[in-house]
Amino acid sequence: MQRLPIQIQQILSVSGDNLQALSKMPDSIFEISKDDLVASVSDNFHSPDVNKFENRLAAIENRLSRLEFRCRSLSLGNTEVRSSNKRKYANGTKINTFGTKLITLNLELKRKFQWPFILASVSKLILGADFLEDYSLLVDIKRKKLLDGASAVGLEKPISANECMYVATVQGDSPYVKLLLKFSDITKPSQPKPAFHVKHNIEHHIETRGPPVFSKARRLDPEKLQAAKREFQYMVSQGWCRPSKSAWASPLHMVLKKDDWKSCEDYRRLNNQTIPDRFPIPHVHDLAHNLFNKKIFSTIDLVRAYHQIPVAAADVPKTAVITPFGLFEFLFMPFGLCNAVQTFQRFMYEIVGDLDYWFVYLDDVLIASTDESEHLKHLDRFQKYGLEVHTEKCVFRQLSVKFLCYLISEKGIEPLPDRVKAINEFQQPKFIKDLRLFLALLNFYRRFLKNAAHEQSLLSDYLKGAKKNDTRLINWTEEAKLAFESCKNSLAMYTLLV
């Protein structure tokens, strides 16, 4: 009765009827006076049950919105779609995004985590605060561990700390910043490049003998198939390839690179029928001749270098690749083609062949100058020919740079310190194949070593008549052990090339 309006309580309190009759009276009173009775509550009254219900309702609405977002991502079929979200780095550079993909993570926390991640062109993967909040994950900064707040389980393996613990800024008035801003069209992320946007006349030609060669599509397991679809959808969207009706068909091969599958066109049958191009490829040892009196260095990284050269229209059908989901042909030069290296080297020679302060080895570019004023003029060549550079991987205006596994400086050319350390700490090999690996690492820097043939003669004797992956044990003699240690020390006392 205490829950009834006060007026009805007063009427019932003076009634002499039994309890059963009293229970029926409130309904009759409501029917008679429903227009006169107004039940009201204070607007500042909230019982604990109401508060709990409101919080629960808000949590359900939040979960429903996240579930709706996941369903939208799942409906994409795990394919890449151009995202309208605009994201930028701290320095203002645009981050290229390609929609979302539903991914299941195994963080070794006794449960798996499914989340629609944004696909973007970034060097490091990021787990956002929304992901951590949704799954009640906690980051123990002191112990560098990830904790599961829902199950009270911690990740046994510590979280590796990022070496970049600061934000680096560049002075806005730096001449190199002004230079990059001036040539913004060569430093932007790679965009579709229709033929009419190409600023050079170099094309890749495929001269062949005999009739067209073709192969059947190779079957792929589900993981490789999805990776191949994503790759080709991206290349079609960029304008690098298109669906084909060619009589030529080379098979598709998938290779694992950095925990992801990448497509690799198998052009071996096509290459066997291709007439070779004899354009010379520079020798890396010729680099030393161009470095005399050079003091300032930069290295340039090109964005998908081969895809910046179009294939001749008549030869586009020859590049066709057959996949389980269709036949595609390349409008721009893909990897794996016979003569692709020669075509690209010819192209780079056309750009910088007359300049002694450039050294080009395939798609690796080194600029060496005597002073800054000369150094600032060099990017003009890239703009003229429409090449795009990857600014995040370029190194500008340094007194020393790493180039082709060498350290280049005003002093000359020398081995990389970390390579020297790795060889110096190499354990005495037990098997023939391990000794072959050691000698291969050492002889990469052979021209820095004095009397290399004599020093390595005892070790080379073990390789006579041995197969490539020979697993026979080595019977080390005292002389061979001394020779092994001497070879390691010889690189530590290398001769500087000037």
UniProtKB/TrEMBL annotation:
Q: Where is the Reverse transcriptase domain?
A: 263-406
State the Gene Ontology BP annotations: proteolysis
Q: Which Gene3D superfamilies does the record associate with it? A: 3.30.70.270, HIV Type 1 Reverse Transcriptase, subunit A, domain 1
Q: Does the keyword Amino-acid biosynthesis apply?
A: no
Does the record bear Protease in its keywords? yes
A GO molecular function term, named singly, is: peptidase activity
Superkingdom, according to UniProt? Answer: Eukaryota
Q: Which UniProt keywords apply?
A: Endonuclease, Hydrolase, Nuclease, Nucleotidyltransferase, Protease, RNA-directed DNA polymerase, Transferase
Q: Which Pfam families match?
A: RVT_1
UniProt protein name: Transposon Ty3-I Gag-Pol polyprotein
User: From which source organism is this entry?
Assistant: Araneus ventricosus (Orbweaver spider)
